[in-house]
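Reviewers of the previous submission asked for a worked example of the structure-prediction workflow described in the proposal, so we include one complete record here. The input consisted solely of the amino acid sequence. No template or homolog information was supplied to the procedure at any stage.
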Amino acid sequence: MTHPAGGWRSSLSVLACPRQELPLAPEALEVLVRGLEAAYGELEAEISASNPVCRRSGNCCHFAKFGHRLYASRAEALYFAFRHGVPDGPFSHDSCPFMRENICTAREGRPLGCRVFFCDPSWKGRDSELSEKYIRRVGQLSDRLGISWDYRPFMEHLDLQREAAGGGG
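From that input alone, the workflow returned the following structure tokens.
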């Protein structure tokens, strides 16, 4: 995996996306990290209050097998790349390259779609409600920081981040 080294300022080369007009300034990156971590913390508290069951089936990460796609915003992808880096080479979009033995190895930086996904039947509907609430917050944060709203499959974001980091593929 390609990981940024040495703090905020040296991480910028990993965060520069070919479609972004200006690189994210260190101050903006700090606001993004703090803003998303605050939102994610509040989301986790709401999820904990509902106590959905996670069976560690890996269905959340096996997109093709389970018949779903993980979408994320550009801001979430930038945050993820800062926290965990991106895969060095090509990878399948059928499952998350950060899953190992049905366990997420990138939990801290995972996007909203990962955070609200539970196979628990009693959770049905609550995921959409929370997702929409927090997507609005991410959108507001993105607007405030001048990050274009690019909501697409997360694996495509990882591809773009890898290309921006010089990992090609």
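The chain has one domain: 9-164. We consider this example representative of the routine output the project will generate in years two and three.
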